[in-house]
Every structure is written in structure tokens, then in C-alpha cells.
Batch of 3 targets.
Target 1
Amino acid sequence: MPVQCSSCTEKRAVLKRPKTGHSLCKECFFWAFEEEVHRTIMAGELFKPGEIVAIAASGGKDSTVLAHVMKLLNQRHNYGLELMLLSVDEGITGYRDDSLETVQRNQQQYELPLKIVSYKELYGWTMDAIVKQIGLKNNCTFCGVFRRQALDRGAMLLKVNRICTGHNADDIAETVLMNVLRGDIARLCRCTAISTASEGEGVVPRCKPLKYAYEKEIVLYAYFKKLDYFSTECIYSPNAYRGHARTFLKDLESIRPSAIIDVIHSGENLSVRDSVKMPVQGSCSRCGYISSQMLCKACMLLEGLNRGLPKLGIGKPHRLHEKILSKQPLTEEEERKLKPAVF
Ligand code: SF4
Ligand code: ZN
């Protein structure tokens, strides 16, 4: 017998909500999903009327749903925001070039302005060239650090007040787990924040309107709305460490669906002893971006790439950093340590 929608009790249910277990028809699911995002935005006071907001758009399901829902809620609830799309071209042939075509179609569909910034123009390197030099280890470290700064630089060019990203509940729970596993207390404290103020010159405030949206529901929403998104994985993935955290979380979720929200909740309520040392934020002596070291991570990684010593910016700040920055020659043994292993 067909199941009735438990919300309107009129139409036939087409899905069981992963978050609540309710059987809903399409329209009631859309409404529930959208209004939950609206409540998240209101409760977190994520935007102010009149702000210009860049939606970080990759063409993937999360950012496509974010762009769709932001446009819709902005109209439905009169947020008074000026929205635009901001994309990063990492220079990954066969992946990003295709997904950027999706973003370009989204731009037409949602009638939003689009700005694309590329690693090639910002750093002089594409991810293809980086992987050629370093191999398939640590490539996501380069990519993640460069993307963060690229979004800020793009946002500065567009003169936006805020960037919103498509991070969903699963992403945040994974990050909490990863930071616990790495013992990275500073990141653990920051990673559950729904919005961050500008941390310094050149850093644009960010927020995550999909923070409490389950990935499974984002997929269902995109599917039933027939949104145009790109679903192929990056050819240089997986980021092995995140992949393990993801699998672990998915296993937990299959036994206990609330595991995702529970992990986020634990992260949000952690308090750190005063005696724990936190990095002191200053600014990079080369590019001015926030950094707790003399050079920011992006400049350090770039320095390593340009010198053919790509391990330079990987891991904890290296004791050779100062020597390199003050242009003292390295011994053969020191050079060898910073070269890529044979892949
Ligand atoms: Fe970049 Fe890694 Fe993501 Fe590919 S999987 S886009 S290399 S961070
Ligand atoms: Zn820098």
C-alpha cells in the first residue's frame, strides 16, 4: 500500500527523510529542507541585509544546492542580499574544466554573476603541474591551502562582504574526527564554527548555511529538484586520511543515523584548558595573508615548488625554513630530505 506523506497527509510519500525518518512527499520535503536552512541562517545570524555574498561554487552537489537554496530563500524571506558565484580553477584537466562548465550553466540558470580565479594566474602553478612534480601524495594539502587563499583573493576582487561555502554536516563531522585523530586542538576549536569573522587583512568572513544538512538529504534534494550538477570525483583524490574518517562516519551512521549531528555537537561543546598553547596569528612577511609563521603556508608551499623542494611546506614548520628564507645554502643531505620521494 502506498505510504502517505506524514506532513500534508494528502500526497503520496516519495522518500523517508534520513534526518528524521519521516515519510514525505516531494513538496513537503523541499519545504522542510529549505526552511531548516533558513532557520540555520536566522539562528546563526549569518547575513545582514544589503550584504554582497559570494557563493563558493564548484559545480558539485553541495554548492549547486547552496546556490539554488540561497537564491530561493533570499527571495522568499527578503534577506536583501546581492548574491554572486565564485569559483576556483585548480587546473585539473578532465575534472575541473568539466565541472566549471556546470558552474557556467548554473550561472545562466540562477542568473547570478560569476567570477573564476585560477591557481595558474594566482600562483603560476596548476594542480596538474604540481602533481607532476610531487606525485599523488600531499597533493590535497597544496590544493586545500591554495584554494582557501584563492577564494579570499577572488572575494576581495569582487568586494564581497562574505563568502558562503557548501560544507554540509557530514563534512564538518569528518573534520571534527580528523582533528581529534591528529590532535590538532586549534583547528578542532575552529572547525565547528558556523561563521568566522575576518581573521585579518585579506581574509573575508565565511559561513556555512548547510552546516546541519545531511549529505544524503542534499543528494535527494538535488535529485528531486533535477538540479544540474557535476558528480565525478577529482582524478587526484582520494585524500586518504579524510577518506578513512568518511568511511568510519558512514559506518557509524548506518547503525545510528544521528551520529553525524552527535559528532558535530561534541565538537561544538568541547572546551580547551587555558594552559593549551594556541598559535598566535600574525601575517605573512611575503604576501600579508594571516599566518602564525613568518611565511604563510601557501607561500611556503610555493617556495618549495619553485625551488624543486616540494616537501618544504609539508607537516610542522620545518627547522630548515629559516635557513631557506635567509637564503643560506643547504647541505646535500638537507636538500635530499626536501625532495619528493620516488613515486
Ligand atoms: Fe584538490 Fe585533492 Fe580536492 Fe582534488 S581531491 S580538488 S587535489 S583537494
Ligand atoms: Zn604568504
Note: The radius of gyration is 21 Å.
Target 2
Amino acid sequence: MLINGKHYQTIWLNEENNQIIQVFDQRFFPHKIEIFDIKNTDDAIFAIKEMVVRGAPLIGVTAAYGIYLASLETQVRSNPDKYIEEVAQKLAQTRPTAVNLVWAIKQMLTAINQGESVEQKINIALEKANDIKQEDIEICFKIGEYGLSLIKKIAEAKHGETVNILTHCNAGWLATIDWGTATSPMYQAQQAGIDIHVWVDETRPRNQGANLTAFELNQQGIPHTLITDNTGGHLMQHGMVDLVIVGTDRTTRNGDVANKIGTYLKALAAYDNNIPFYVALPSSTLDCSIADGITEISIETRDQNEVKYIQGKVDGEIKSVLICPETTPAMNYGFDVTPAKYVTGLITERGICDASEEGIRSLFPEKF
Ligand code: MRU
């Protein structure tokens, strides 16, 4: 998608040196657009853990390139296979909730094992990471096409009046490689000439909505309004939301959805107000090995300072501001789980299905 009118993806190989992976440093959006070089596996681990990159699909692709870098590093290691395994374990532990991370690592390890020499493994690793990246772009595009059909129906029912969509966190192109998951239907609706407006939850504590989703929509010229995380319920009660679309970090086989903390409350409010609540996801986010999201999905807890401080731009500089007494303890759960019963449907690259085992099985039988 666009930044200052120019098309970008979120991750790419350095043009002069394909042993350097480059990403936007998402810690500083929208105030500073800075590129972060991932030159080795330590950088890849840092980038995921510290949220230089974030969003389930982008985390997965970054880990895939991390394994490619590990394969390069084996050139000076006495036991290459053991080394790659060690890096894979470290990468897998960086962020526990998004299942795309372990999914991508497994894909990479399976592919690499086909190679015999170190050189072969390096070539396979690069090719596989590139494939996973390319596949994500195509998947997000397909999600957009299916999601667009929902928006079209609402626009028709409203006789062309603006369709108001609410989203939480950033499941946009910055969380993927291009298009995004929750945002892909929005971008495609814009291209189809449908009048849409997006309510953007700020998404405390790290404000991915305010910093990233608002940035994306602004760059793309999609009408949007930033709201505090507590506002959605009020808007829904007053007929100001037609549709909710969010992303997910892990969806279980019975359709429970883990996503950014606060998603569950939006789903409850949508349910109470009869507003369709859809979750957009690539199949790499399905975890059919587990059924009950509430008890079985590992929820990341992060540093309490992310709650106690807010980052923003002050006098042209990015600064952090303390918002509570210094000694007040804070709790920072990164994600919550929305039970399947509150999810109207799952928008995937193969179509829209019920958030249920039957629904998921009908589109992805190979996942069971
Ligand atoms: O903590 P983050 O910023 O990685 O959380 C991101 C989300 O919760 C997204 O909604 C999710 O990863 C889906 S991204 C297509």
C-alpha cells in the first residue's frame, strides 16, 4: 500500500545485499518513517520481541527470514542443524500468542531439511521465505475480495449511504506484507467506489490503532475517525456502526478468536446491538490443534510501563509521558479471546465461514 503516494511492502531484501532484511520500524510510526536493518538472527529476534515489526502475518514472515539468516550463519558453525534448531526455538519464544510465528518456522524447517549441503539449505531457505511472503500478499488480497462482498451488501441495503466499519488494533497492511486482513476489504471497497468510513479504536496500551491504522487509512485516503477504546459501544447503540472487522492472532478449531486486548468487549457490544462482527484471517492463523481459546491460548503479558506511559510527539520529538503515580503497578495483557458465539463469521482466503468447527472444516479440511 502507499506511503506518501509510493507503493511499499512491509519487509524486503536489501537491493544490494540479499543477506540484509529491511523493515519499517513500527515503533515510531506515524511520527518517523525509519527503516530497520535485520542483519542477523539476533536482530530478527529483537525486531519481533520489541515490536519493530508486529501483527501476526508479518511476525511469521519476519521469523521465516530469521531462519534464512540462521542458515547463513551456519556457514561458520560446527553443527549447522543444531544451530538452526536453537535459533528456531529462540524465535518461537519471542511472542507467544500469534500462531503464524510457529507456523512459519515449521514451514521453513521442513523446507530446509530437503537440502543436503549448507549452500543448498541457504538457497532453499531464501526461496521458502520469499514464497511465504508472496503467499501472504495473495491471501490478503483474497480476504479483501470476500470481505468486499459483505460491505457491498450493506451499501446496497443502505442505498449507497456511507458504510461505517469499526476496527480494533492494526490488522492492516503494516501487520501483513500488503493489503492487510481487516483492512483489505476496506481498501477494495474504496477501489470499488463504495462510500465507507472507518472508526479506528486507539488500542491502548501501544496505540496500534492511533499510530498505525490511522496512518494507513490516512495515507490511502480512506475517511476515518479515531476513537478511544471505550467509545465503540456507544456508537453501536446509536446506529453509527454497520459492521465490525478485526484481525486475529490465533483462531481455534471451534472458532474462538484471540486478538488484541479489548476485541472481546467490542464483540460483546456488537452482539448486544445486532451488529455483524467479522474476523479476517489467513489460514496460517488457524490453530486446529486446540479447541478452547480461553483456556488453551497463551496470552502474552508485556511490560507494565507500556500501560503507565504513553508515547507521542512533543515539540517535534517522540517522547514518553507517565500517566499515573510512579509507584502504581500496572497489568498488561496483550490479547484476549472472543468466544466463537460472538463472531458472525470468519473471512478467509477461501471464503467466509461460520466461526465453528464445521465452518472451518468446510473450507480447510486439511487443517484437521
Ligand atoms: O501486538 P500486535 O500489534 O502484534 O497485535 C496485532 C493484532 O492484534 C492484530 O489484530 C493481529 O495480529 C492480526 S494482524 C493481521
Note: The chain has a mean pLDDT of 98.
Target 3
Amino acid sequence: MFNMGAEPEPRIYARDKHGIARSSISHGALKVCEILRAHNYSGYIVGGAVRDLLLGVVPKDFDVATDAHPDEVHRLFRRSHLIGRRFKLVHVLFGPETVEVSTFRAGEGGEADEHGRLLRDNVYGTRVQDAARRDFTANALYYDPHDETVLDYHGGFADVRKKTMRIIGDPALRFREDPVRMLRAVRFAAKLGFSIDQKTRAPIRELADLIENVPAARLFEEMLKLLLSGHSAACLAQLRKEGLHHGLLPLLDVIVEQPQGERFLRLALDQTDARIRAGKSVSPAFLFAALLWHEVLAAWKINEGKDLRSIPALYLAMDQVLDAQTDKLSIPRRLTTTMKEIWSLQPRLEQRSGKRAFVLLTHPRFRAGYDFMLLRAESGEVPMELANWWTRFQDAEMEERNAMLIPDAAPKKRPRRRRKSTSGSAPAPARDGPEN
Ligand code: ATP
Ligand code: MG
């Protein structure tokens, strides 16, 4: 429909060449394409889903691209809403599934800042233009569920087979337009086991500082995607290798020189990757708390050296670290609140006197705080014996718990989680000073 005159023709791969089974496409995405088509619009599965299906990986979600304008798409689907982040998109809901529908865009003609960063990217265009504005060749394939073909304008099909991330167009120009693409290159390469094409890679080191011009909230989102990719350790290693870690998380610099910090971070990342790959949930707050912990420790120590008492010194350190971080990569408040709770539980977990130990068990973040302490123990920061104590204490019967407490310390009341009644009554409450 859009191939007017000189427009380039895509390569077309038929079902027997690409091997993607229609049954591997989500119900919602198929439905969206079908309904668009019934109304004389085009509808293709695009982006990561096509790439992943070619690789035999189950896609995270399905994106659809169309020549219908967002308002038209919205009108076609009762359960849909327009969302306007950087550009207008439509989210179409099918039960628990959300299909993101985007209108073909031209990718140029928008405003740019003095470094060439596109400030707006919302000019509609043809399918050919839409393919050209995408970031990597592997991400610019169009699957048409109607005739089961894959359309390829930029050699993405061959690049997927070769496991190569290759940017579309001039690398330096495309990275200037949107520096986040450098992070995306690293994330996809690490996650998919691809190499970054030599020409694509070449300008990255030189342009790395442009990351600093990206709005902090967007950087946070991208960093989160990277950390939750199931390959965070590989991603961070590659970020360092490409010189891209400066300014993102200052600790990534510092940590290399602190063996203990390095070990702690590695354990945290490995654990996160293992959970994601096993399909378990991961708490972003826990992860960021881990990423910044050694910064907090360093600031805490400095504050204590300035004659502050230990706990106020820690609270000050937490704020200092989070404030410094906000300029670069702003962590949303909903996370920082939890991060602070996890951090502030750490010194409390090091005291095992009776009443406090029982109170801690009922703390809403106890589990996260305890998991965090396990990492600290495994990295050699606190004695393993402390972690083991808490492991046993949590699961012990009341009698054993009481026996485990440091002498003269016992709870006033039994904890809520009642087990079968144990012998006798709990010892009298201890005077172990005010809680907290
Ligand atoms: P994921 O598996 O992480 O979802 P994805 O390739 O689907 O990978 P999305 O962020 O969901 O990535 O974006 C969907 C598609 O939109 C991409 O495949 C790419 O074609 C295009 N795209 C996304 N971000 C950019 C960008 N910064 N510059 C150019 N194109 C982009
Ligand atoms: Mg996607």
C-alpha cells in the first residue's frame, strides 16, 4: 500500500524459511492484526517478539505496528487506551494480555538538541520509514500473521541467524539521536548472546558521555530493564567493557577497587539472574539497595568519623547516596522508601537481644532485610554465624527461640505466629533498653 515508486522493497521470508508457527503468537496480538486488517489497515507483529521467535525464545510481550492512526486504533478496540509517553501509542487489552500498538513513524523531522538527540519522534510515516527508524536490524522485522511472511528491509533476518546486533544506518548518528540505544545494544547482546557488530560498536566509547543528557527517569527505566533481563551480570560486565557505566551508577567504578564490594555485587546480580531465569519475581528495591550498599557503607563510615552516632550517621549516609544518585538516574520514591528500610534493618539485625529479635521478625521488610544480610554474610562483610543464627531463629519453636536469645533477653509477648504450645510460660521481659 505504501510502496510508491522508488521505495525499497523488503525481502520476504515465507513460513518454510523463517519457521515461526502462528500458534506461538499470542491470542491478543493475532486478534489485533486480524481486526486491523478487516478494517483495511495493515497490522504486523514487530520488534523483539519476531526476533525472539526466530531464536526460539518465548517473547516477553507482543508489539504490533500499523498504518492506522492511534485514534483509529483506539476506536476499533473497546478495551483499549491511548497512552502518550514519548509518542502516542495504544494499549489493547485482552484478558491479562496487553498488546502495544504503534503507528508507523518516520523517525526524522523531529526536533533535536545540540548533541543531535531527538526530542520528539512522533511524525507518522510509511512502513519503510518505520523500519528505518528502528534501532537494530534484528528489531526491524515485520511478521504478517495473515500470510505468515516475515518482511525484512535491513538484513535483520540474516543478522539474527549470525547473532549480530547491528544498528540501522550510521551508528554515530543513531546513537546521538538516542544515546539509550547504546545501552540497548549492550542489553540485547548480553541477553541474547549476540555480538555487537564492529561498526556499531566503534563509536560507543567516544559517545558514552551522551548518556548524561538522557532524562534521569528514562535512564532508570532502561537500567531496570537491563538489571531484570536475567543477564544482569553479563550486561554490567559489558557496560564496563564498552565504557558505558560512567554516570549511570557511580559505584560501578568504585567497586572494582573494593574486592568485597565487587563480591557482594556479583552475588546480588547472580542471585537476581537465577531468580528471573527460574520465572520468580525480583524486587527492584532490593536490587538497587544492593547496588548502592557499598556506597552507603562508605558514606556511613565517613559520617561516623565526623562524630555522629551510628544510627543517625547511617540515615544521613542513605540520604546522601540517594541524593547523589538522583541527578544521574533517578530511582522512584516508591523504591527508595523500601531501600531505606532494607538498609536500616542491617544494624538492627546485628543485635540479637530478645525483645528486639522478636520485634524484627514482625517487621514488614524482615524477609528482605534478612535476605540482604545473607548476601552480606556470603560476601564476607558480616560473620556467617550471624546469618545462620537468624536462619535458625525464624524457623525455631518458641522454646528454642528463647534459648537462642542472648542471656537476659526475652520477649514480653509471644509472637503472632503461634506454634503448638511449648512448655511453660515465656521468661519475664528483659530490660534491654528502648527498641530501635
Ligand atoms: P524486549 O525484549 O526488551 O521487549 P524489544 O526489541 O521488543 O525488546 P522494546 O523496548 O519493547 O524492545 O521496543 C520495541 C521495538 O521498538 C524495538 O524492537 C525497536 O524496533 C523499537 N525501539 C524501541 N526503542 C527504540 C529506540 N530507542 N530507538 C529505535 N527503535 C526503538
Ligand atoms: Mg518488546
Note: Residues 284-305 form the longest helix (22 residues).
